[in-house]
Amino acid sequence: MSSATAMTQRDRFHAVSASFLGWTLDAFDFFVVVFLYDVLAAQFHVSKTLIIATTTATLATRPIGALVFGILADRYGRRIPLMANVMFFSLVELLCGFAPNYAFFLVLRTLYGIGMGGEWGIGASLAMESAPAKWRGVLSGILQSGYSWGYLLAAIASRLVLPTLGWRWMFWIGGLPALLALYIRTKVPESEAWHEHKLPTVGAILKSTLHYWKRFLLLMVLMTLMMFLSHGTQDLYPDFLKHEHGISPAHVSYIAMFYNVGAIIGAIIFGQLSEFVGRRKAMISALALSLIVIPFWAFGWTPLILAVGAFVMQMGVQGAWGIIPAHLTEVSPDSTRSLVPGFAYQMGILFAAPTNSIEYALRNRFGYQWALAAFEIMTILSLAIVVWLGSEQKGKQFTKSNY
Predict the structure, then answer these.
(1) pLDDT tens series, the chain, 403 aa
(2) Distances from the Cα of 346 to the Cα of 281, 331, 341, 397, angstroms
(3) 293 phi, psi to nearest 5 deg
(4) Does any domain span residue 196?
(5) What are the CA-CA distances from residue 302 to residues 246, 247, 260, 309, 316 (Å)?
(6) How far apart (Å, rounded) are the C-alpha atoms in residues 313 and 396?
(7) Which of 28, 39, 238, 284 has most Cβ atoms within 10 angstroms of its Cβ?
(8) What separation in angstroms does the CA of 251 have from each of 56, 211, 284, 307, 355?
(9) Farthest CA pair distance, the chain
(10) How many domains does the chain divide into?
(11) Does residue 128 lie within any of the structural domains?
(12) Is 247 in contact with 255 (CB distance < 8 Å)?
């Protein structure tokens, strides 16, 4: 294909689908651990705090994957690096199911972070470059909702697979995404925007990135707060429901499924809203929704109120997140549209990596309810200020052809 007009509707569908599936399966592989804190602590004869620390290790190594795979995607195209990334994180996830002890498991979850960190930047750039500008908002929401779909699938697996087949099968199922590489190889076309703006060397890519260092730093602050928002409301919430409210693991799984449906709905609604009111106003609207519902989400006095509070909370959280793929790719340089968004995204997670450990420590001092509520109130207010003071380039054309 020599121009963007040569990309058919089917080509665009496959490109967006591959990106969505990659992020969904990547998220599934991460969230499996969230439902296994107690099981793994007993299996490896360590404290639950050490199991929670493995999620911190995963989050901390994600920038390495974003840097390596982002450079590869900007230098050699989106398809091959995306295939390599999917195969890498799938293999590591599969091996987690064979872990004989905690040390081995910790090393694998650290390596898994590299794969997880590389997927988002490539997938977001491929999807957004393949989408018509007028559909970018809603497709951004659909793409980012893959994260919630992954969480939802992990919750379903914890209800169906864990009680019958055991914890190891939770990870072995996570090796199946390797098959996605075959789909990418046979169905997904290369990005025309990459062909148009590619740079000749890795050095040129790094030089171009450094030229926009101020913008990168602003994006990194934004993404750090966004990570506080998502991981602070999601990762410990199943544990919170079990130990603070005495809800059974089975019912916790059902609640997790329910609030992830809210997350999916929110990502799509606010993603589409951003096409009408702009990226920043739509994000702030989503944040306001999350702020309002905190009393029900953290202090709900019945399982039903907690479930509804979590549903609305995740509508707001993932509503704001649903705008991120479009927003970050639009404000990033054309020639480094995989590296800059992906690396800023994952550097944010590096700084936010201790979120779970911080909230768990606050729980020991102030109680679980106030630990989660206070952390997220401060996060949401800070994030709203950063978003409002930022800029946007909604509708920016990625190729010479407007489509």
Answers:
(1) 333 445 677 888 888 888 888 888 888 888 889 889 889 999 999 998 899 889 888 888 989 999 999 999 999 888 889 889 988 988 999 999 999 999 999 999 999 999 988 888 888 888 888 888 888 888 899 888 888 888 888 888 888 899 999 899 999 988 877 778 778 877 888 888 878 888 888 888 888 888 888 888 999 999 999 999 998 998 889 889 988 888 888 888 889 889 989 999 999 999 999 999 999 999 999 999 999 999 999 999 899 999 999 999 999 999 999 999 999 999 888 888 888 888 998 899 889 888 888 888 898 888 999 999 999 999 999 999 999 998 888 878 877 654 4
(2) 24, 16, 9, 25
(3) -90, 0
(4) no
(5) 11, 10, 19, 11, 21
(6) 30
(7) 28
(8) 26, 51, 32, 10, 25
(9) 61
(10) 1
(11) yes
(12) yes
For 177, the token pair is: 């995404």
Q: Is residue 111 part of a domain?
A: yes
For the purposes of burial, counting CB atoms within 10 Å of the CB of 388, is it exposed (0-12), middle (13-18) or buried (19 or more)?
exposed
User: Amino acid identity of 41?
Assistant: A
Residue 96 domain-assigned (yes or no): yes
Joined together, the tokens standing for residue 248 give: 């059974």
